[in-house]
Specification:
By secondary structure, this protein is an alpha+beta fold. The protein has helices spanning 171-179, 182-186, 227-231, 237-240, 262-271, 273-277, 324-333; strands at residues 26-31, 38-41, 44-47, 54-55, 59-67, 78-85, 89-94, 100-106, 111-119, 133-141, 160-162, 167-169, 194-196, 199-204, 207-211, 222-224, 251-253, 258-260, 285-288, 295-301, 304-308, 319-321. It folds into three domains: 26-141, Immunoglobulins (Immunoglobulin-like, Sandwich), CATH 2.60.40.10; 148-225, no CATH class; 228-333, no CATH class.
Length: 337
């Protein structure tokens, strides 16, 4: 997307040099903090800490690093994934400048999956004998029941009640919501406040608030959950390949290796910036919206998904925020969104 009138084409071109002759590759898979960690080389697989069960409905992220025999990262390597077992899945991605990539998938059934990743050196779409692979297992458990806080509530004294979703907004969460974007940035509340992973939280259509007492008084001690990082599924390789320089008129974030351009940049700068949206964690790319089944130009941030809807909202640069709070509430607890 450039400005708010056209889609920004990819600016990264990956050279193809035919078959890459590599005597030994090292592939390392690591899961998210609550998932199995795995390190593998040819013929050797070392598991990290004892794996914890994944929860049906949530996303699992498998991170991969590809290195050569000297231990140096290998960019531009196609890595193919195959998942069998309770939840079948497949896909492919390409390693970035650090020799890393990842694959996300979600489980709909309890049980155990076997996930295999292999480096497709000759890019013929199948695993040949000289191409190394790594394997890990993911065990899925049933989703927890929906918290009582997700059911319609009665109006509470001293709070703002939203008939649209039949939930209250109170205290510091209300002050933060009102000051930093309101319904357009965060959407309506989808739950009451409740305890999750040791924190007081509340879900909104486009965000999840966490209360961290004393952490940030000037922002009512409210931090937003990094939902963008959790809901981003498998994306095109060019969208997660890190940049070393910004495109024309774009702003490069060295922390993540992604830049921010045009209308998305204007929206980010004007309507929330780093505290509200977080850093960009992808480039712009085309993605199907799970709410209306339409395809839009999107970009993922740590705490948000930007969607370009041409002509829909000029005063907000035609940018709408994805309903990632509702999406995660459904993933975690099965609550319809």
């Amino acid at each position: 997307m450039r400005g708010s009138t056209r889609v920004c084409p990819g600016r990264h071109h990956r050279a193809r040099n035919g078959l890459r002759l590599i005597s030994v590759l090292l592939i390392s898979l690591f899961a998210m903090p609550d998932l199995p960690a795995l390190t593998a080389s040819i013929g050797t697989i070392t598991l990290g800490p004892a794996p914890e069960a994944a929860t049906v409905g949530r996303l699992v992220r498998l991170d991969v690093a590809v290195k050569n025999q000297e231990g140096n990262p290998m960019p531009g390597i196609t890595v193919r994934f195959s998942v069998t077992g309770a939840n079948a899945a497949s896909g492919s991605t390409t390693t970035d400048n650090h020799g890393q990539t990842r694959f996300n998938y979600s489980g709909s059934h309890t049980g155990t999956d076997t996930a295999v990743a292999h480096a497709d050196i000759n890019e013929n779409g199948i695993q040949d004998s000289e191409e190394p692979s790594a394997t890990t297992t993911v065990t899925w458990s049933a989703s927890p029941s929906a918290p009582a806080a997700a059911f319609p509530a009665a109006s509470k004294p001293g709070c703002d009640f939203y008939a649209e979703t039949q939930h209250n907004l109170c205290g510091g969460f209300r002050e933060y919501w009102n000051q930093f974007g309101g319904v357009e940035n965060f959407g309506y509340p989808l739950t009451e406040e409740f305890q999750e992973d040791g924190f007081t939280v509340q879900y909104f259509e486009r965000a999840e608030f966490e209360w961290h007492p004393g952490a940030w008084p000037q922002r009512y001690d409210v931090l937003q959950t990094r939902l963008g990082s959790q809901v981003m599924g498998s994306v095109p390789a060019e969208a997660i390949t890190e940049r070393t320089s910004a495109g024309s008129g774009c702003l490069l974030f060295a922390e993540t290796g992604h830049d921010l351009c045009g209308g998305f940049q204007d929206f980010w700068n004007t309507l929330g910036g780093l505290p509200v949206f977080g850093l960009p964690i992808s480039q712009e790319f085309q993605e199907r919206n799970p709410d209306d089944d339409q395809t839009y130009t999107v970009q993922y941030f740590e705490r948000a998904r930007f969607e370009w809807h041409p002509g829909s909202l000029p005063r907000r640069y035609d940018v709408e925020l994805g309903r990632i709070g509702a999406q995660m509430l459904t993933h975690r607890y099965g609550v319809p969104s």
